[in-house]
Write a structure and sequence with these properties.
By secondary structure, the protein is mostly helical. Helix content is about 65%, strand content about 5%. A two-stranded antiparallel sheet has the order 1-2.
Length: about 110
């Protein structure tokens, strides 16, 4: 479908793809804020987050190898937020283990 993109620095990007990535990009800081504020891993799923991270890796590789355009920067920013969420998860989990909320990284006493 031609004509539904925007041109940035002489490269056409799909406006719909950019809007999708921006929406995801708005959701991750909220998720990150909630993780920091709650100081808990409750409701977090490492497998889910791993698949999201992997999806961003594939998206970035696709953009770099097959469809290079400016949207790759949005993918990179979003992936960085997922990596930050992983870091917050392990900080919170370590605190939970120390406080006795869970017996280890796999066992939870809730």
């Amino acid at each position: 479908m031609r004509g539904c993109g925007i041109r940035v620095y002489e490269v056409e990007m799909s406006i719909l793809e950019v809007l999708m990535i921006i929406c995801f990009g708005l959701a991750w800081p909220i998720n990150l804020y909630n993780s920091v504020k709650s100081r808990s891993t409750k409701g977090k799923n490492l497998l889910f987050m791993s698949f999201i991270l992997l999806a961003y890796v594939f998206g970035i590789l696709h953009k770099l190898l097959a469809a290079a355009d400016g949207a790759v920067y949005f993918y990179i920013v979003n992936e960085a937020m997922v990596v930050a969420d992983f870091a917050v998860y392990f900080v919170n989990r370590r605190r939970e283990v120390r406080e006795g909320v869970c017996g280890g990284y796999m066992q939870v006493y809730r």
